[in-house]
């Protein structure tokens, strides 16, 4: 089975309106209409078949020839609905959260902020995508704040620090 990015998938790749983990994003990029799902799974990215199936269900990937699939279909019952457009950057409540939960909440905000910088934020965006835990993301916060400004970085600060 050979997969290709849908129109909605191309949009999500650009605007990051749906949060993908770094390994999902890499696997998503590898789905270029030439590689089979087996090739993508064997590429050593650590992505699972279920994660690829999830991207198909979200309308981000489709079989070759079906790439003009509807722009992000309704999610299956019990699954969270993906946002069709970039959602405003809003941090989740922070009281009593573990560092792992803070990282999970802050990572999509950080990637959205740095992704919005375009080429001038490319290296910073790569640094954010290279983080694996809360501490690493917290270390990058001053650089992100300097790049996007304190107003835009406020949601990220709330997600990271609970402030």
Please supply descriptive tags for the structure shown above.
3 strands, 163 residues, 8 helices, mainly alpha, 3-stranded antiparallel beta sheet, single chain
Describe the protein in words.
The chain has 8 helices and 3 strands, in the order βααβααβαααα. The protein is mainly alpha-helical. A 3-stranded antiparallel β-sheet has the order 2-1-3. Helix 5 packs antiparallel against helix 6 (122-129), helix 5 packs antiparallel against helix 8 and helix 7 packs antiparallel against helix 8. The termini are far apart.
Structure summarized in a few sentences:
The chain is mostly helical and 163 residues long. Helices cover 52% and strands 7% of the residues.
Write the layout of secondary structure elements.
Elements: E1 2-5, H1 7-15, H2 22-30, E2 32-36, H3 37-42, H4 49-57, E3 61-63, H5 99-115, H6 122-129, H7 134-148, H8 150-161
Helix pairs in contact: 5-6, 5-7, 5-8, 7-8
- Strand percentage lies at 5-15%
Through-space gap between termini: 47 Å
Number of helices: 8
Order of helices and strands: EHHEHHEHHHH
Structural class: mainly alpha
Annotation, overall tally of beta strands: 3
Write down the Rg. 16 Å
Shape: elongated
Percent range of helical residues: 40-55%
Spatial sequence of strands, sheet with the most strands: 2-1-3
Overall pLDDT metric = 77
Main beta sheet strand tally, sense and closure: 3 strands, antiparallel
Contiguous uncertain segments of 5+ residues: 68-94
């Amino acid at each position: 089975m050979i997969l290709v990015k849908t129109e909605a998938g191309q949009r999500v790749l650009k605007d990051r309106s749906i949060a993908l983990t770094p390994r999902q994003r890499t696997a998503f990029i590898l789905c270029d209409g030439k590689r089979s799902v087996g090739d993508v799974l064997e590429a050593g990215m650590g992505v699972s078949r279920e994660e690829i199936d999830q991207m198909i269900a979200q309308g981000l990937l489709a079989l070759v020839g079906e790439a003009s699939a509807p722009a992000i279909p309704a999610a299956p019952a019990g699954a969270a609905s993906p946002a069709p457009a970039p959602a405003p950057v809003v941090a989740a409540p922070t009281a009593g959260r573990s560092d792992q939960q803070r990282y999970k909440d802050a990572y999509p905000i950080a990637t959205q902020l740095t992704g919005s910088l375009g080429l001038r934020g490319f290296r910073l965006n790569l640094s954010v995508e290279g983080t694996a835990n809360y501490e690493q993301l917290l270390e990058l916060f001053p650089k992100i704040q300097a790049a996007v400004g304190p107003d835009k970085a406020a949601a990220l600060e709330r997600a990271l620090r609970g402030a």
